[in-house]
Write a structure and sequence with these properties.
Strand order of the largest sheet: 1-5-4
Largest sheet: 3 strands, antiparallel
Number of strands: 5
Structural class: mainly alpha
Order of helices and strands: HHHEHEHEHHHHHEEHHHH
Helix content: 55-70%
């Protein structure tokens, strides 16, 4: 125990701060929540790094300029075409007159590829925000689930410490939960349960908003041929006919000279970054569909139906009754009184679930059960049961 306290004292405070606010390495929710608030944030952050490295370190655009252009002209053309709106025309189409801007650009203008890192960063923030609200909201409601889970996990990993130390860690968590359950009797509204379900709805709304935006922005055609063409990177320059992520575009710009002389130029540019952008957003679209299916199933079948029908509440009472009856069954003297003890303990076990744990407690116990081992969970339930029997409700 002394060694652990020394290690905790020397731990860098910045790590604890980032761990609390960023939510990484936290497990105070279920796996479907972590798919959104952890894995999705990690995936989109990696995409931000990839696209940003190509844009700000590599060369995201290269334009085919006339032979009369000097190196300074070529550099200027690349930069002006990168920050300006380019447009896509088919390789077989004729380029309209310079005065006809509507025919040249129109609906084929490409305006968003410069902002792809910020779009991906906004998507990552959309997945980060609900998890942050869950951590802050549960803390304001008087319970810090992650601290309790950390302490329970510490008891599991304390193999070299005395058994009494491990039991004391679990006992401390049980005492804090007992205090929380008894103080919460003043409120008849399961605020923590409503908050957790609201956070799950936030995740679903965020996924729907991102799916809708990507659908109208990318206009994906989900056929087998379309997916095959989009997922495979071809080496030819004429194959890419995507209106959303074209690799061959046209760019118009004006070079001013002394006096009123203005020279208009139209150059053809290559956007190799759009090859990566298309694959990234295609993966993001499929990933969002997968998350939406998982989130809907998790919310409806694993939580709402569970809370409405209280399946695990009956399981808890039955497990406690089996534990009590088995103790009497082992003793031949009390074997004939087994039925009597079962009947005597039914009201108190019913009140343990309905008046002591209640809806918030059942949700907390289920989150603990999802994130800690079975032995520790059984010890925690035993301690809560013993504390409840001292002063039943």
């Amino acid at each position: 125990m002394t060694r652990y306290l020394k290690r905790s004292h020397l731990r860098f405070d910045v790590y604890a701060t980032l761990r609390h606010y960023c939510g990484f390495s936290r497990n105070d929710d279920d796996f479907v929540d972590r798919l959104s608030r952890y894995y999705s944030v990690l995936i989109f952050s990696v995409f931000v790094v990839i696209v940003s490295s190509v844009q700000f370190v590599g060369k995201p655009i290269s334009c085919f300029t006339p032979a009369s252009f000097t190196d300074a002209h070529i550099t200027y053309a690349d930069f002006i075409c990168w920050i300006s709106d380019t447009y896509y025309l088919s390789i077989d189409a004729e380029i309209p007159d310079p005065e006809d801007l509507e025919a040249r650009q129109g609906t084929n203008a490409i305006r968003f590829y410069q902002y792809v890192p910020f779009i991906l960063l906004l998507q990552a923030f959309g997945f980060f925000l609900p998890g942050f609200l869950w951590r802050s909201g549960s803390f304001r409601l008087g319970i810090c689930l992650q601290k309790h889970i950390d302490q329970l996990d510490m008891s599991r990993r304390s193999l070299t410490e005395p058994p009494i130390y491990r039991r004391q860690l679990i006992r401390n968590v049980a005492l804090r939960l007992d205090q929380y359950f008894r103080m919460r009797r003043r409120s008849s509204i399961p605020k923590l349960t409503f908050l957790y379900l609201l956070i799950k709805i936030f995740f679903i709304v965020n996924i729907l908003i991102q799916l809708t935006c990507l659908h109208y922005l990318m206009n994906f055609d989900f056929t087998f041929d379309s997916l095959f063409q989009r997922l495979i990177i071809y080496s030819t320059t004429i194959r890419h006919t995507s209106l959303q992520f074209p690799t061959n575009v046209l760019c118009d710009f004006i070079v001013r000279f002394l006096g009123k002389n203005k020279h208009r130029h139209t150059v053809q540019c290559v956007l190799p970054i759009n090859v990566f952008n298309e694959k990234i957003f295609l993966f993001a679209y499929l990933w969002l569909i997968f998350l939406f299916i998982c989130a809907i199933y998790n919310l409806l079948f694993q939580w709402i139906i569970f809370i409405l029908f209280h399946r695990r509440v009956r399981d808890t009472r039955g497990r406690r009754l089996r534990h009590i009856s088995s103790k009497h069954y082992c003793d031949d003297i009390f074997q004939e009184n087994e039925l009597v003890h079962r009947i005597d303990y039914q009201p108190i076990t019913k009140n343990f679930s309905q008046r002591y744990l209640r809806c918030d407690g059942i949700v907390i116990m289920r989150l603990f059960d999802m994130n800690i081992d079975l032995v520790t969970m059984n010890d925690l339930m035993n301690d809560l049961w013993e504390l409840y029997k001292v002063n039943p409700l």
